[in-house]
Amino acid sequence: MSATRQTYRELDDAEQAAVALIKARGEDFLQTLSRCVPQEREQALARTKIEEAVMWAVKGVTG
Q1: By the 8 A CB rule, do 16 and 33 touch?
Q2: Are 50 and 30 in contact (CB under 8 A)?
Q3: Per-residue CA distances from 8 to 18, 25, 54 (Å)
Q4: pLDDT digit string (tens) for 2-61?
Q5: Do 61 and 18 form a contact (C-beta atoms < 8 A)?
Q6: Could you tell me the pTM of the whole model?
Q7: What pLDDT does 63 receive?
Q8: Cα separation values, 2 from 6, 31, 37, Å
Q9: Residue 60 dihedral angles phi and psi, to the nearest 5°
Q10: Distance of CA 49 to CAs 19, 45, 55, Å?
Q11: DSSP notation for 5-61
């Protein structure tokens, strides 16, 4: 498997549902973070880590 995939494969229904769920839960977490944590460095770091976790989880499903 190439680290820089040149083409994308079509996802089946279960994979599409998994990606949608991961992204929805990530968005829920980001919204909760925005409501509960002051706009400071800690929120920025947490936001980055949540976004990274979603990215890796999606890559795990689609990889």
Answers
A1: no
A2: yes
A3: 17, 24, 19
A4: 677 778 889 999 999 999 999 999 999 999 999 999 999 999 999 999 999 999 999 999
A5: yes
A6: 0.86
A7: 86
A8: 8, 34, 38
A9: -65, -35
A10: 18, 6, 10
A11: -SS-PPP-HHHHHHHHHHHHHHHHHHHHHHHHS-SSHHHHHHHHHHHHHHHHHHHHH
For the record, the structure tokens of 26 come out as 């990530």
Q: What is the per-residue pLDDT for 8?
A: 83
Amino acid at 35: R
Look at the block and give the residue holding tokens 């599409």.
16
Which amino acid appears at position 5 of this protein? Answer: R
At residue 6, the pLDDT reads: 77
Helices 41-62 + 13-36 axis angle, to 10: 180
Task: Extract the tokens encoding 32.
Answer: 């909760």
